[in-house]
């Protein structure tokens, strides 16, 4: 089984996680730029963080046979701090880099006017750089936040097929499906979405434009929940091909629109060796 986690914050994870992920078949990932818990007070902190996402972290991942890509943006929460606003001026330089496959995470946290402004500006950057956009939806007031998100996406003129709206649940899935955007679900240990709930959504809404991620970060989360969802799909009667579509081909198709997804290494390994145990050697 091969798994692509399209949203995971490896900066906050250990090498044990990389090792367990590779052993479970999670051999390609996208790490979106987000907030780090502790608020940053200057644009310089973002420069170092972005450099790490396109430099150090891909190297760390490669030691375990995991292919790492990044998305770059000023996140919705820190969009509210005027000291971080100049990050917008740093973005064009990063959006030209090879390992950057989208603009993200953008969107809403508390739905403030500052967030409106920064969200719209970054969707414009995605259009200008011909990149997809990864959109975070707020955890409070989710339905209203998702409606407003879709209105801003429509207004921006970006192709909805270039947009993934993330952290969806049973309440918001229908809204996003009708918009033409891609749909993403973060599987968490005890909030957001669980593997059994995810399986039900796939049974009801089908597999098209569906992405499943662990969104694992510095909070209570689990980088193996993409694999747990794949196993739950199989147990519920989905085929190996269905699992491959949701957990591999869909994220490859979405982020492949950047023209920068490079999976030659891991796909070759996958084709050469049956099973994933060989990846543990980190050769
Ligand atoms: Zn995230």
From TrEMBL:
Mind telling me which Gene3D superfamilies this protein's record contains? Answer: Metal-dependent hydrolases
Pfam families registered for this protein in UniProt: TatD_DNase
User: Which keywords accompany this UniProt record?
Assistant: Hydrolase, Metal-binding
Signal peptide residue numbers: none
Say if the entry is tagged with keyword 4Fe-4S.
no
- Source species, domain of life: Bacteria
InterPro entries (UniProt xref): Metal_Hydrolase, TatD-like, UCP005295
Keyword set includes Metal-binding? yes
> What's one GO MF term for it?
hydrolase activity
The similarity comment for this entry is: Belongs to the metallo-dependent hydrolases superfamily.
Q: Report what the protein is called.
A: TatD family hydrolase
- Organism annotation: Phytohabitans kaempferiae
